[in-house]
Amino acid sequence: MEKLDDIFPKTKSVDYLQTSLEKRLGPPQSFDETNLVLQLGSNDPDRLKVCVEHAVQSYSFREINLNCGCPAIESGGASTYGASLMKQPDLTASLVDSAKRGLESGISSESDRPNISVKCRIGVFDDAEQMRPLDEGDYDYLKEYITTIHNAGANHVVLHARPAILSGLSPVKNRIIPTLDYDFVRSIAADFEDKVDITLNGGITSLTQLNSLRSDTTSPISNYMAGRWSLRRPLDLIGVEELLKDESSVSLKETNTITTALENYIDYALTMATLPSHKQRFTTADLCLPLYLAVEQLKDDWDYDEEDNPSEDPPLLSYDEIESLYDVVRDGITSLQECCNKGGKKSKNSSNAYKLISTSIKSLAGTKVVNKWKRNRAEL
């Protein structure tokens, strides 16, 4: 997600926007990533149109998504966009229309244009004291809101199955305290079937849960979205890929696939780290973060105890497979240390192996940064 004020401030030109996009996505047309979605946060229709027009001229996107679901104004969330837009359906519709016009200006062929989608919550309250179970009035409001943005040009809505609390709850608590209501989303999806694709978001944390949701052939929901789960357990994406291929069983036993993915990323990180300073897009910490998250998942799976975690899926990897993957990450971190001239202890598998590799990552990214990652991961 990109805030429009960050990548295209009011005082800056289109050249600044182009530079901002290149910093995030690389040189224009350096890839043809049809699965890439550009999510924008804004309440300025005119600048949004210009942004979309120039973005799609340079990069391939599957979708342009408008953030109408980010809550918690007082706690660092969106004060001029996000869930506050749910209280302004006409402005939201104007933003959708502007994005549509930006696509029309940027891409001449209608068939080549990305879709326009909106991500929002199932309801919105001004503060925590107003929070209550959603009722028929809330349902009618959401239904009218989606109708309004659909008429403006949105054909896909991602619904986080919790209401948003605009003030009084932190962003983290906004993802936990408001009650999930999947039935609310299913009902909305049924009302808009064959008109608007509805994606369910919120609370999906395991392959078993995702498989169960997808196995419901009577559900009118089009798709399912998980964000924090993928950050907390990135290696599970291999299992998600198997589900998307309609494999009969969920398994990560093809460790060669995971090994290849990790090795490919390490090669990429080393390439990025050795670029001339004026061409570098990522800090060393940026490059270390995916490896840190992979190591933390491996550690969780190694320490898994069914009695302590009865509600969680058991690890899909054996201890031998975890050790093998750990070796790959350890060697990659060592290579990054050598590349960045930051020495560290080289470790072989042992009782303190995870502690040693954590020390190596801290030598690259910095102790404060890694401690912040640890706190953030605990909130996922």
What's this, in brief?
By secondary structure, this protein is of the alpha/beta class. It contains 15 helices and 7 strands.
Helix/strand-derived category reads alpha/beta
CATH domain fold name of the largest domain: TIM Barrel
Strand content: 5-15%
Largest beta-sheet details = 7 strands, parallel
- The helix fraction, in percent, is 40-55%
Query: Any idea what the shape is?
Result: globular
Terminus-to-terminus distance: 17 Å
Rounded to an integer in angstroms, the radius of gyration calculated over CA atoms is 22 Å
Based on the structure given, which CATH architecture of the largest domain is correct?
Alpha-Beta Barrel
Mean pLDDT: 89
Figure out the total of helices: 15
- The stretches of 5 or more residues where confidence is low (pLDDT under 50) are none
Instruction: Report the CATH C-level class of the largest domain.
Output: Alpha Beta
Question: Can you count the beta strands?
Answer: 7
- How many domain regions? 2
> Topology as H/E string?
EHHEHEHEHEHHEHEHHHHHHH
Order the strands across the largest sheet as they lie in space: 1-2-3-4-5-6-7
The CATH superfamily title of the largest domain: Aldolase class I
